[in-house]
Amino acid sequence: MKKLIINADDFGYSRAVNYGIIDCFTDGVLTSATMMTNMPGAEHAAALAKEHRGFGVGIHLVLTCGEPLLKSHKTIVDSDGLFRNLAFYQGTYSIDRAEVKTEWEAQIERFLSFGLTPTHLDSHHHINTHKVMNDVFLELAEKYSLPVRHNMKLPNGIASTDQFELSLEKALADEDSLLEIFGDAETLEVMSHPGYLDKAIVTGSSYNYPRLDEVELLTSPKTVGWVEQSQKVRLVTFADII
User: In this predicted structure, what is the pLDDT of residue 242?
Assistant: First the structure.
């Protein structure tokens, strides 16, 4: 059978997002999440992860949201000491590679300090696909022996799924739509951003109310029914593709 990972980004953003993600695992078809260890809800997310065995939790490396864990940076933060906005990286920019590496190592080490074993790496806003960050991202994946999201060209030796899909709605429309996305691939990750709303997410993220729609889709009896009854696809985590 083909293997399907449905991953929720932004675990740890806030308590409301965390609860929405966990409900999608316990009551829906979500199998996995990636944690933002620099965000205020990280410790809460870690506690929830420990309570739910079988839930795959990886690390959502951050460079464009909130505050860094390290306070010595000069080039990857603004004048207030916050991470630069994504728009900064969409033009011509110059940053210190060492700052990216030490910050991301700190984020990984904080995850490990929670007593959790990461299943994989990805990044917030797909910042790992940008110049400089790409090399650092792959270097850390190799250092910590972790699979990664297949949103870029991967060198030999880096584990990932065969395919990656951005559209949750398209993937979960029905089995035919999902199988069309799979094509000849045997493994597929579908990205999602479910969550409930609190002040942190409403004021801090431009993607807020659609998170409720994703919770609804991931937990709807119709979705759960056809996914769980499929004879061609089974739900897994990144731990099942290594």
Answer: 80
